Amino acid sequence: MRPGRTRWHSIGKWVLIAVCAVILLVLPRFIGEYYTNLAVKIFIMALLACSFNLLLGYTGLLSFGQAAYFAVGAYACALLLKLVIPNVVLAILISVVISAAVALVFGYFCVRLTEIYFAMLTLAFGQIVYTIAFKWESLTGGDNGLAGIPSPPLNCGLFTLDLSNAFHYYYFALVLISVSIGVLYLIVNSPFGATLKSIRENPERASFMGQNVRVFQLISFGIAGTFSGLAGAIFAPFEKFVSPELTYWSKSAEIVLVSILGGIYTFIGPVVGSAVMILLEDYISTYTSYWSIFLGTVLIIFVIFMPDGIVGRTNQIFYKLRTQSPIKQ
Amino acid sequence: MTGIVALFIVVIWAFTPAMGKEKPIKLGTLFVMSGKLGGYGKSGWQAVQLAIDEINESGGILGRKMVAFNEDEKAKPEIGVQIAKKYILKKKVDFLLGPTASSVGLAVSDVCRQYKKILIVTQSATDVLTGPQFHPYQFSVLSNALMQSRAGAHYLAPKPYKRWMCIGPDYSYGHSSWETFIAKLKELRPDVEVLGELWPKLMTPDFTPFINKILEANPDAIWSPLWGGDTVTFIKQALPFGLFDKVKFAFPVGASMEVLIPVGKDMPEGIYMSARYFFTTPEYGRNRRFVKAYYERFKEYPSYMAEESYAGVYFLKAAIERAGTTDTEAIIKAVEREPLAWETPEGWKVMRKEDHLAVEDVVWGETVYSEKYGFAILKNIESIQGELVVRTEEELKEIRASYEKRMKGR
Amino acid sequence: MLPVARLSLRRRHVGELSNIVIQVLNGITFAMFLYLIAAGLSIVFGVINIVNFAHGSLYMLGAFFAYGLVHKLNFTGNFFVTLIFAPLLVGLVGLAMEYVLLRRIYKAPHFLQLLMTYGVILVIQDVVKYVWGGLGEEFVKSVPPPPFLSKSVDILGHPFPSYYLFTIFCGFSLAFFIWWFIERSRWGSLIRAAASQKEMLNALGINVKMIYTLVFGLGALLGGLGGALAAPVRAAYPGMGVEVIVECFIVVVVGGLGSVQGALAAALIIGQLEVSGIMFLEEFSMVFIYLLMVVVLLYKPRGLFGKKVGEY
């Protein structure tokens, strides 16, 4: 590839990111409170999906119980804020540590398996967490969940964020989540990420080359669980309500769907998938109670015509356009 | 000259909007519309539509028409909250009504409190809403689990059953229904004996192991908070065991169309069932008109979920009319000024100010198959007075006090 | 005094024994319901290697077709006719599904198959809601069993519903039929060949694509049969497929993917565990099936009868 091309390509990427950042920063002014709310939901889902995709897209492991770590983070944060300390940052930090620990414990068992057996075991652990959330009423509120989670104001030195205000929470979530996604990006583009990809492609060969496959998978699982827990911890003071539904396998399925929709072999795919799915559901359900058939048809058409996901497909289109462009050598 | 005519026309035109083409009152409803429990949502939404059409045809509320939206909460609090926010922030509804699932009820009720919008609770039966989680931005039109259980205790205490068991769905509604019932029963009749409790998970497909446990323990009677589709499958599975000949059953929410119609003529006779409302009673005009209108439009008899939602819309009408405005705070003040009584198909209900709960009578009866309807209806109907079963003065004081404390702590 | 004591002791022993027998029978019945649904999924996975998330929806269609046939077309006279036609209809749906949709994604990774079949679940869900959810239709639909199967028989002093005995009979017959069909019949050998050596089979001029289609249709038919059999006991309602699909997958995975006898063994173990669990440790009945899967998978990472692929 010509050197000029590469430089232009990476400059273009940064310009795109800068433009997106500006748009995201001014968005709330234009879209009103409801859509600002929806945007926060998209951010949270995007982080959740990206963390999940570390496992599927980069390590080749289909986790069907990722919602469990999300929920652990959410419940931990909720309980900390309600009962222990009214400080959002501390609550989030501690919740993240707790979810990471849970993920490492479950992951230790799960990485002994492969393919669909791995997926089923993650599902089983997810359901076990569901059962605990459901039955341990004195701690989790049982199936009624925990309501009235406080969002205490956050003192950032120069200014104070009133986190019960949707617009303030938007910026809070935006900063936290973009940084996290940035960190995930660095992880997948690091040597560690490269090893994960080689494990995804061919675990046997990777192990022959001296990599301790299981350890890498476990670390990947732990990282994914940590960021899923972070997503949950950001969710709790925003939604102000947590319930066992957050750990149910249907929530895990949602995460899987959203990532595949966006394209699991690209980094930004799950983010795009989250936005598309949430907006689509919001739009369709307003107009008809038969949204299932609509969504189902969309998914089916998707798999047939766009198996690489939205971003995968657009990448293909761009690639085609680029290679067809009549630039004389 | 033409200038004056033009001015005249413009003035008339400018003022016409103020004269009756007012903005409609918007009501956002949410129910469970899909899955095994979807029957409740279907009834609820149908009833809301009927009520609104009736109200609009007779002039609306304060001269304004009412318009309603409906979405499926799918028994998931996250979705319920999303819908509630959509209604409040995007659709700018004036009031909300519903939901079905208790957990969704709690979540949505909190959203309404945050945004200071009134929620009319017509299907969630958890008594937590009028108890530990009370706040003034919601009104419960239906008798909650607490009232149902206490009424059951009053109804069953005089009967000759001493050895009791319970089989109910394993979640907070089931548990609190039983706990309240047995506490009250023991109070009224200290010689009762509890043999055991069984808690199949909600929407269990197979009750057989539980049925066997009941047969083994051989109680005199059973209290069963199973509802909707669960009651249908339970009864169908229990019938071949002859369970209902050996043990007397009491279903506090069993007499709903969603149960009676699918079970049909298989329904054993003499099962004690209660319903918040049963369409054959009372025999008076308002009820008969409601049942007729509902049947003609929707080809089925109204269940209690339909009637409660219908009553909810009419409560809203009464509240708005008393306040003279749709302003939230004004309505709350108006309703709390003195108990608001309004007419519903099941009779006159009274909304009291202490816990925003409608004090209504609870109806118990025994099942008997009716050729006329093709499903079982209730005979020997007894009405337990509302005042007897609602929370007492001290309990209410506690509720208000805890609300004040919670609000201070924010 | 002594003879009386001895008599009452004996009666109590017989009581204990009969309790255990009933419990075992309950466990087997529960297992049969599981197996009847899971068998189709297992075959499809074993032969075509496709993850059909929508199998539960086919089960639901079986129940609804049974309801429709009985109520709307007045097949009330003959339950067994319904039991033949409802699954056949579902089998047709399966054939159509395979031909139009699933064919295209055989080579796709499992997660894409999951996504597509999830789409199918959503579509079937709304179709059922539309067709059977009109005005005046109740949500939970009752399907009556034939009169001679709706009473109970006396087993060691306890009543046991004869419909359950019928289910047990159906379950074991099906297991036998599947075994015979796959292991002993000519069709079965074709199917086994298509599962493991499809290139060779193609080279021999046999239309493997059609075999796949028929196998999927068979899997769908079995799922529908499970639904039609379950309907008189569990009623037909929207969403029953989604409830059952996870259990189905657990049975297939615990048994070992691709092994139909594994599915039977897993179903029997799970059935017995659920029933005993409910009898003794009722608090946690929600979680038994998942704990079982955890335990089995940790000791036998390929399921009970699963085939071992390379370790690393």
List SSEs of chain C in N-to-C order.
Answer: HHHHEEHHHHHHH
Strands of the largest sheet of chain C, in order across it?
Answer: 1-2
- The tally of strands of chain A reads 4
- The secondary structure category of chain A is mainly alpha
Distance between the termini of chain A: 11 Å
**Sheet bearing the most strands of chain A, described?**
2 strands, antiparallel
Query: What would you call the shape of chain A?
Result: globular
Please tally the helical runs of chain A, counting DSSP H or I stretches of 4 or more residues.
Answer: 13
> How much strand content do the residues of chain C show?
under 5%
Alpha-carbon Rg of chain A, integer: 20 Å
Q: Give the neighbour order of strands across the main sheet of chain A.
A: 1-4
Class based on secondary structure composition and strand pairing of chain C: mainly alpha
Please provide the count of β strands of chain C. Answer: 2
The description of the largest β-sheet of chain C is: 2 strands, antiparallel
Could you tell me which chain pair has the largest interface and how many residues each side has?
B-C, 42 and 46 residues
Q: What number is the mean pLDDT of chain A?
A: 87
Percentage of residues in helical conformation of chain C: over 70%
Oligomer: heterotrimer
How many angstroms does the end-to-end distance of chain C come to?
71 Å
